[in-house]
Amino acid sequence: NPSDVTPDGRLPSADNGSYEKDSGHLRDIFYRMGFNDQEIVALSGAHALGRCHADASGFVGPWTPTPTAFNNVYFSLLKNSAWEEGCIKGQTCKNKQYRDTATQQFMMLPTDIALIKDPGFKKYVDLYADDEKAFFKDFSGAFSKLLENGTKNLYAAA
């Protein structure tokens, strides 16, 4: 339900105009919570799960062909696929996003693309694309840290 979507300001903006600004925005959001570049990339691996819904976020489509499996396919696709700006096949996008050029079935947010354009992030995308165990280990640590950070001013969705 779109009314249950996280309010603006709780999550990083997915498009800030350029990969440099997207990278900077990710760092601004996550550094203030005590995360480093490796942990930012590891947490981004949660995009292996689920999909975007245009009515909720303005973005549309799955990141991977296995949206119900937690694995490193997100990183493999990010690293090994060619990406172009556009909506996945048969859909209309409200916001700027990217699709794989081979099948046009999978999407990436501008902040996902920043992970392969920014050298500080890319080395971890490469690592996790090639080593699922390293991804699981690093994600586990980063996710635990995220949970330990806690929350403030949350309220139940209507």
TrEMBL record:
<dbReference type="InterPro" id="IPR044831">
    <property type="entry name" value="Ccp1-like"/>
</dbReference>
<keyword id="KW-0809">Transit peptide</keyword>
<comment type="similarity">
    <text>Belongs to the peroxidase family.</text>
</comment>
<dbReference type="InterPro" id="IPR019793">
    <property type="entry name" value="Peroxidases_heam-ligand_BS"/>
</dbReference>
<dbReference type="GO" id="GO:0004130">
    <property type="term" value="F:cytochrome-c peroxidase activity"/>
</dbReference>
<dbReference type="GO" id="GO:0034599">
    <property type="term" value="P:cellular response to oxidative stress"/>
</dbReference>
<keyword id="KW-0560">Oxidoreductase</keyword>
<dbReference type="InterPro" id="IPR002207">
    <property type="entry name" value="Peroxidase_I"/>
</dbReference>
<protein>
    <recommendedName>
        <fullName>Cytochrome c peroxidase, mitochondrial</fullName>
        <ecNumber>1.11.1.5</ecNumber>
    </recommendedName>
</protein>
<dbReference type="GO" id="GO:0000302">
    <property type="term" value="P:response to reactive oxygen species"/>
</dbReference>
<dbReference type="GO" id="GO:0046872">
    <property type="term" value="F:metal ion binding"/>
</dbReference>
<dbReference type="GO" id="GO:0042744">
    <property type="term" value="P:hydrogen peroxide catabolic process"/>
</dbReference>
<dbReference type="Pfam" id="PF00141">
    <property type="entry name" value="peroxidase"/>
</dbReference>
<feature type="domain" description="Plant heme peroxidase family profile">
    <location>
        <begin position="26"/>
        <end position="158"/>
    </location>
</feature>
<keyword id="KW-0408">Iron</keyword>
<feature type="region of interest" description="Disordered">
    <location>
        <begin position="1"/>
        <end position="20"/>
    </location>
</feature>
<dbReference type="GO" id="GO:0005759">
    <property type="term" value="C:mitochondrial matrix"/>
</dbReference>
<dbReference type="GO" id="GO:0020037">
    <property type="term" value="F:heme binding"/>
</dbReference>
<keyword id="KW-0349">Heme</keyword>
<keyword id="KW-0496">Mitochondrion</keyword>
<dbReference type="GO" id="GO:0005758">
    <property type="term" value="C:mitochondrial intermembrane space"/>
</dbReference>
<keyword id="KW-0479">Metal-binding</keyword>
<dbReference type="InterPro" id="IPR002016">
    <property type="entry name" value="Haem_peroxidase"/>
</dbReference>
<dbReference type="InterPro" id="IPR010255">
    <property type="entry name" value="Haem_peroxidase_sf"/>
</dbReference>
